[in-house]
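Take a protein:
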Amino acid sequence: MPEDKYLLDSYKIETADGKVDRKALDEYIKQKPNKRIFFWRFYLSLYNLSSRKKDNGFNRWLRRIGEAPVIYDEVLKDRSAEQLSLYMRNKGYYHARVSDTTLLGDRRAKVVYKIVPNEPYRIRDIAYFFHDASLSGLVLSDSASSELKQGALFDVDMLQRERERIETLLRNNGYYNFSRDFIYYEVDSSLGGYLVDLTLGIRNYPMQNDFGKIVHVKHPVYRIRDVSLFTEYDAVLFGQTSDTARLDLDTLMYDSIHVIYSEKPNIRPGVVTQKNNIIPGELFNAANVQRTYRNLSSLSAFNMVEIRFNETDDGDHRLDCQVMIAPATRQSLTFRVEGTNSGGNIGAAGNLTYGHRNLFGGSEQFDLSFKGAIETLRESQGNRSGNMLEFGVEGRLRIPKFLLPFRTEQFIRRFNPQTNLRLSYNYQRRPDYTRTLANASFGYNWQGSGNLSHLVYPLETSLILTPYKSETFQDWLEGKYIYYSYEPHLIVDSRYTMVFSNQKLLKNQDFQDVRINLEAAGNLLYGGYRMLAPEPGDEKYSLFGVDFAQYVKADVDFRTYDFFYEDISLVLRGFLGAGFAYLNSAAMPFEKQYFSGGANSIRAWQVKNLGPGSFNDTTATSFPNQTGDLKLEANMEYRFKLFWKLEAALFLDVGNIWSLSPEDDREGAQFRFNRFYRELAVGTGVGTRFVFNFFIFRLDLGIPLRNPYPIEGSNWLPGSAGISGRDLTFNIAIGYPF
């Protein structure tokens, strides 16, 4: 850094009005200091590692991945103050005073911007002036949706949002050529008392008359004349000519839509027209255009969708719509190999998947997967060493509509639903037991209004059998609460999931995700048996000789993503879930219980090696005995980019699982309000991630800070027994943990 220059060390914005959005103000600062990871200018340090004396590849690489020092610039400081003042004016604070102070010392500069908002201008009265009186009824009827209210701040951004709202309203009601540029404002600020009267006006539509002169007329209302769906669009061929006869294309009229194809339709016309919201004879509606694009883009049989409009030449204000659809490759075959590390047991897995994007000609997505895995199990007390073998097959069919006995065309057009069918079989062989799981499910998912989506599975059936248990394993299970989880059982459940996400694709902006799951099993079966079958006595009701599970389960997963910079973010996650078995079940099925630890949970403990509660399994077996009915977890992860494809993270995980059954014999496993907070495990650690275009390879090193079970001395390891190498947990995974 030059001798007479100063490094911009920091800046601060001080304002006396807490109502001003500080994060919005931050965007108007034209010069910001070097990015920090916590208190360390990491990228500046990388840059400073390079040598100016040697212009070799290594030094150029360091300068490229690093960040040059930000030299304090007084011109940019003044521009920042001007921008802050402009922002305050746009928010209604026309008499705001913005001052700045620069503190220089030790070759560093610290800038303080001070904002005194003073009294803002507010809207006293709102009037409308329509050059085209026919617009007044539509605009005024929706005024309840307007942000313009008496007493509101005279906010320029709010005025712009009102222009956008009216544009959207009119374009959804036939005004194809309308834009926000026709809307203007007139402001009377001579009232005094920091009040303004506001007039919103809408100009007429300019057009050229027969004499070539521009005249202003009423805004034309457009209707749809013809809709043509080109289901085999080829940009190269259509670039040469759009004459369907010359392209040797055929046309089929279906539901008043021209379906254009060559030789034979590659998809049933009814499937395409059912997803279309642009209907001949109806008014132009921009929202319906977006729905049509969304619906058709979601069909697996299509690779690209483009929608065009052309005004007709008859002067009747009508539109011809062309929907250009490029088909996708029908079939695919993929093979994936991956390494696994489950609690220190190393293994490998392979997956072969055959996919068909248009199985029955209705854009049905079919996937058939074959999975095989092997894992070497270490010998420990109570269980034998050997290999765990797993084989599985799964078939999935996704149908782009509701399979229901009544008509759902309007629902399909609006919410783009999907029916999901799934069949699977999984076989697991371990040295101590063999387990099989057969599953069949039937459900629906659809996009709700706004940022909501829904998933409903009215029926899901799982049959779990344990055909072999070694004598050692059987003896270990006897008398334990978990014994019931390894008995043959049938699960017939229904579940519902609601997902909220306000994430904007391709943008690193703050957003939140919330997922709520509700599930119940066995209630209808139990009710039917109670009415029709005799009391089973001490036994349980069974179906085909297998006891069926009965329980309720609910959980919520909340995540928030805050971006400090484009490549530095803080992610917070909270999870709360509980399941309760009753009547026909003595315990929750093993597959439905919660576990803690592992790559996506408390990373300082191995998967299924934490809890429940203060229970400490000292038998040193690898038999799964650490599951629970209730889970409480909180995670915090600070993510930042290092260089190239490499990212790093610092994390803190807190949580545990507990049992809700009074019959659970594991000491300290049951949930109690007066002690659960003392049974929370705490772990921290660091991680690295290789972020590629199609996947993320993750390696996390977990470090335990607090044990949930009683130990001699303090439960906080750094202050008691200390942390040794054997306490560290390595987690290898694909994708972010959350």
User: Anything to note?
Assistant: The CA atoms of residues 233 and 326 lie 5 Å apart. Residues 74-90 form the longest helix (17 residues). Residues 122-217 form a domain with the Ubiquitin-like (UB roll) fold (CATH 3.10.20.310).
